[in-house]
Write a structure and sequence with these properties.
The protein is an all-alpha fold and 304 residues long. The chain has 2 domains: 37 residues, no CATH class; 257 residues, no CATH class. It contains 12 helices and no strands. The termini are far apart.
Length: 304
């Protein structure tokens, strides 16, 4: 006899928790049908794919402000190209014939791409991380499932990396359409920029996981780390043009290392093999260290 209140007696249902005629791998079909996978299967999937479920949740949450993300990726290069190509760039080119043997716009475009994406990474790894611990507390909700704190941390970092790559791709496409970069080798700026974003975002995410009370911490990060890095990491002029006592800001900045690599693939900035290796090693080491610290801090906080 069919009892409409009991899912196990509905037509096409399997009392064991499956669903006749419905592929158990198709979770969406099961969800919309009102049935669900057995708890053991759900837990097994979360144990193996918890990092992706966390990343997927974060990416879906970004839909709430996707217009801001797209607007930044589209309008920022347009406005900068107008300012640097028609405004300041014209004056620089007339006075000095460009920078490093290329027009000023060609020189500055890769730096603007890297700087914009790195600053976006900072925004994604401060207040959103604090929200997961303090306001929304969704990290704690995830940690009560079969997912581990490690998966939560790595899933968050993966989502940020995907957003950085997507934003870099849109930014790059606009630069190509405006004629600011070479459309062939410059495409390598996308992975380089995403790596620079993760190299800065991962350590910042690790720090954000330790912030328990809302204060001026993130404002201080913006004022004394992000903005000096933007101004003094060689975005608008070669680092060698700065006083020696300020050049160290670029040397320790993922923004400068990413910009140097982006310029190398964009217009052929001459870099020796060992220089390329140093830039990549610095960004990779910083990303790996930041990921390790993020996992450690997420684990400490979620297992209290």
């Amino acid at each position: 006899m069919t009892d409409p209140r009991n899912p196990s007696t509905r037509p096409g249902s399997d009392p064991a928790g499956g669903s006749a005629g419905v592929d158990l791998a198709d979770s969406n079909t099961l969800a919309y049908s009102g049935r669900a996978l057995p708890a053991s299967i759900q837990a097994s999937r979360v144990r193996s794919l918890g990092w992706w479920y966390q990343a997927e949740w974060r990416l879906i949450g970004m839909r709430a402000y996707w217009t801001s993300i797209l607007g930044s990726a589209l309008l920022t290069p347009i406005l900068y190209v107008i300012a640097m190509g028609i405004g300041l760039g014209t004056l620089v080119d007339k006075a000095s014939g460009g920078v490093d043997g290329v027009p000023y716009l060609t020189f500055v475009a890769p730096g603007l791409l890297v700087a914009t994406v790195v600053m976006s990474a900072a925004n994604e790894t401060m207040f959103p991380v604090m929200d997961g611990f303090k306001w929304g507390k969704l990290y704690f909700a995830r940690a009560t499932t079969a997912a581990s704190p490690t998966q939560v941390a790595l899933g968050e970092l993966l989502a940020v990396a995907i957003r950085m790559a997507a934003e870099a791709a849109v930014f790059w496409l606009v630069l190509v359409l405006l004629g600011a970069v070479n459309p062939t080798t410059s495409v390598l700026m996308i992975p380089v920029t995403a790596l620079a974003g993760v190299a800065f975002g991962a350590p910042l995410m690790a720090y954000s996981a330790t912030v328990e009370q809302e204060g001026y911490q993130f404002s201080m990060v913006q004022r004394f780390i992000v903005m000096p890095m933007f101004l003094f990491a060689g975005t608008f002029y070669p680092l060698s043009a700065m006083p020696g006592y300020l050049q160290w800001i670029g040397w320790i900045s993922p923004m400068w290392h990413g910009t140097q690599l982006a310029r190398a693939v964009s217009f052929g900035l001459p870099l020796a093999g060992w220089e390329v290796a140093v830039h990549l090693a610095f960004l990779g080491a910083l990303a790996a260290l930041g990921a390790w610290l993020a996992v450690r801090n997420f684990t400490r906080r979620l297992q209290r």
